[in-house]
Batch of 4 targets.
Target 1
Amino acid sequence: MKDTYKSITSASEEVLYKDRNSKFYGYAFPVKTEEEINTHLEELRSRHHKASHWCYAWQLGKEEFKYRANDDGEPSNSAGMPIYGQIQSFEVTNILIVVVRYFGGVKLGVGGLINAYKTAAQMALENSKMITRSIDRVFVVKFNYPEMNTVMRMIKENNLNVIEQKLELDCRVFLSVRKADADEILKKFNSIYKIDINELDI
């Protein structure tokens, strides 16, 4: 069972690819929402307000993916899809790649554009620090105070990650568990009398 995904840790430094006087500036950003994507796009349009095109592709999700590729006025599939192809090639997600073009007066043709946008996207990704993260499921364990030692022993024995805990008379502990281990952990907690465990949909 695949329970990891790859992303980048922080925004890449600006990269530059040139072809026949046209300049292609490449950027990669880690993102989690479309709102974040729009913020980065607006910022780059403002910074490069004299550019001719702001082409991009993004992908969101850990297991089920949502993506978009935008040619921004370039010939169909000559910009957005070559950028998205690099996202697929590097197998990264939760990412936005933008390539900003300044037209240099010489037309590159569709083949030249595909190569330029692909190369600028590749350079931005190569200039980024990759990280592999686990896909986790989140559980809440509910129990009464007398069961505290049993629950804490189980957490320690299985090296579980506690996100949050509310230890009063009516106790709750929130756990983050790797997807591959989740069913086994669920079974272990369910086997203990007076302890209730449920998965949270987050």
Target 2
Amino acid sequence: MSNRPEEDYDPRTILGCLGKAGIADALLGAGSMFAGEAPPEYVIIIGVDSFLDAASIEHFLAQERIRCSINPDGFIPGEAAAAIALTPRQSSGHALWIEGVGTAHEPASPFDEATSLRAMGLTKALRNALQSANWSADDLLFHASAIGGEQWYFKEAALAMDRVMTRKVAYFPHRVAAQSVGEIGAAFGPLILSWIGAEMAPDDLGTRGLLHLGNENGQRAALAIHHR
């Protein structure tokens, strides 16, 4: 990440090329701004990404990673821009609160068969988010992810959540944003927060959950969120 003190931007503006999991760095950076001297009233986080250029399409077709009639285990390329406004101030109405942020690195990769999938990185990120929020797994009612569609990442999520959960529950939904928008990379961070925030309610998803996002470089991010 790097500062971009240009004419049209606040000198604290930061640009980062950090992929899906970069939302954790952005949120931690916003928290530092709010806790510092002369804190802003709001911090806006923007995510922009695209998989719809010729070079990207050719690359992922060559790797047989794009979903099509002969390859159901792939993703649908997309592009998007999404933004959220953050403030530490108490809202007069209902609002989404980010209670905890966790990060970790996953050593396993779907492109490296030498390392078996145990989901230890995502498990650590999820537990770090719970610890940051001072929650236990018993507080959770759902989880949501930015998985693009490939089965390896669904297996990782299932393994990690199984390690994190301390008891079996009859209903514990997993919402997947890519089902509606395809693979949109770095735009997933702010998009999934706004989307899940709009759906959280006591009679639907519930008021407490975990979001998790991962990069192909192994970086994992988890957020503990609370609608209150």
Target 3
Amino acid sequence: MHTIFKTSITTSIMMAALAIAGSATARDGNYTPVGTWKTIDDASGKPKSLIVITENNGVLQGKIDKLFRGPDEDQNPKCDKCTGANKDQPIVGMVILSGLKYDGKEWTGGEITDPANGKTYKSKAELTEGGTKLQVRGYIGVPMFGRSQTWVRAE
């Protein structure tokens, strides 16, 4: 009886450890949005920017790392349409994505700022295609009333 009890405890501990390791693995590597993402311009289909997403205490934040701009365009534009702390701040280095938390399937409860119009929207994000793409949705009120963009993991 003592051996059965001991085996049962060992099995339970091993199963718990595997469950914990499995959930951590699911968010490591390409199964987490943490990393660098290339945004694509909806109209031209050309790369628009690089966004670096970091995670702190389970909360995601995305910052513009680089803009892909033509030689005749301002290479370091300021967010003249933004309000609050971002008003007239450089777009490169600006935090545009914040507050996203993993809910078991996707990252929800965040906000995203569009420097082109200065507006901030509720947001959510979901990894697709094995973690190589990130479906980012900005919306007003409920996700149905919004717009999605597909970001591509930068190599």
Target 4
Amino acid sequence: MKGSSLIFRKNKSFICFCTLAMILVLISLLAPHIAPHDPLKTNMTKSLQGPSGEFLLGTDNLGRCLLSRLLYGALNSLKMTFSLVIIAFIVGTAMGMVSGYLGGIADTIVMRFSDVFLAFPGIIFAIAIAGVLGPSSINTVIALAVVDWVKYARVTRSLVMSVRKKDYIKAAKMGGAKEYKIILKYILPNIIPSLIVMATMDIGTMMLEISSLSFLGLGAQPPTPEWGYMLNEGRNYMQTVPGLMIYPGIAIFVTVMIFNLLGDGIRDMLDPNKEYGR
């Protein structure tokens, strides 16, 4: 208990950003209950209005409440981002475990397969896949997952190859432990902290990727509120009503910063070489 308190005292920034991340997620989940207006309801007589008592952040070109769309946009953006991170994490980790633990022909197949995806710029490849599948939120997540699993596979492979040489792994094999037990009981717990840090820091990056595809019209489709698509909708009014781009841009920036700094905090917490309380 004393060691844990020392760790948390030394990581006040981690606690701060963890709290901010939870608040952000909570706000997105409560969007249907706290949004002042229906984000899809249009009213052309009130289009492009500035902030007022009725519309705290004003309205867009179709008279929809901008604050309500930002709140619902948080829900949609975070839902897509977390889905992408989870898919890339699971697929990449599984492929990396197979490659790193089995070695041989399995390692060669997985690594050469990943080389195919690394041969092209990731975002360009994702745009091509999303273009073939068609514009939608689900297809955007699929397109980016096809690209983003590779880095998890390579990092996992490297970690597994390092851990499998340890003496306790050799002892487990000599003791007759089954392969799946060695992987789940001895290897995975030793590599999962590094992968969690990587996934946390990837949340911001993947949100930017999703927003980029939505900005290009390949992600969420109208009238669905999503921060990247809201940027696309507001670009024609940047000079007259800059808030249409500024507000979703700030939302993306703040969210990315929170999760990036949270990832840094988690990395410091899980770093076994860091000396706490000295």
